[in-house]
Amino acid sequence: MDYNLSKEKFNQLLSELKQEYQIYAPVRKENKGTYSANDLITYDLIDNLDDIELNKKSKYSAKEIVFPIRETLFHFMDGEQKMASEDEEKYIIFLRPCDRNAFKRLDKIFLENGPEEDIYYKRLREKVKFFVIECTEGFDSCFCVSMDSNEVERDDYSAFLRFREDGISFKLNDQELKNNYFTDVNDFEKINFEAQFIQENKIKVNLPDKDKITNEVFENELWTEYSERCIACGRCNTSCPTCSCFTVKDVLYDENKKSGERFRRWAGCHIDGFTEMAGGHSFREEHGDRMRYKTMHKIYDFAERFDFDMCVGCGRCDDVCPEYISFSKCINKLSQIVEEGA
Question: Which InterPro entries match (predicted)?
């Protein structure tokens, strides 16, 4: 069912939803950016329509809502273990199609990539409803069309929203929300509208023919360029909506050295220490080797397993790199090398 909502009616709906859900959307945080007097666009809780930033891409995705930067797994005391208590909150996330498709990639990694599901991810993920924001123009660094992540299926969202100057067109696709919040049909103007999606980005990416990728590609001199330029800051990992690596640590409490907790926190393949092993040995010391590893995972390894690429073309890695390394250009260079038979 589709509806037209005025801004006032939409804010009223948000107010009602807040009684049951924590509502996240891209917001602008003034003077919180990387540089002095710069604003930060990121995901946070909202109260009303005016809180949502629609004209700028968020620096970070909504990933951390279901995959927290730091997450306690269990507590231990005197040899006994107790699983960390479960958050009872439910969530609504406003996001664009590329970020919704990024959650599909995370679902594959955490729920289908091994013999067991990741229970910590699953129990948060099951409490999320997605409100997809219509995106027909994109931003300068986006290449979602090339990555086939510019559109979503109807089953991918609870609601699809078109923001207009005078209100919101609201495509409802969730029976629970309909039963709880749209019972008085006279309060809403019924309409029919078709979801629109961006069909062309300024940036075009040519994906390599996976059948032509050989072992020689892994030794190509392309990767040495990134050894010279990459400073291993990890910004591309933390801003990426599909990077899912983490490290696990135990911490002991000061008051009782036999008690503590085990937690996981984000890690990244570009960061020093990511591949460090006992004895001090570390794989992929060269930064170019790390770029190769990430690139091949995003556009080759993952697709070999799940039939679609891991990268969704949001362009955030290009946006945040202090050395102006472009992942989209890296893919195009790799494609050319593959076509030339390197």
Answer: 4Fe4S_Fe-S-bd (IPR017896), 4Fe4S_Fe_S_CS (IPR017900), Helical_ferredxn (IPR009051), Sulphite_reductase_A (IPR014259)
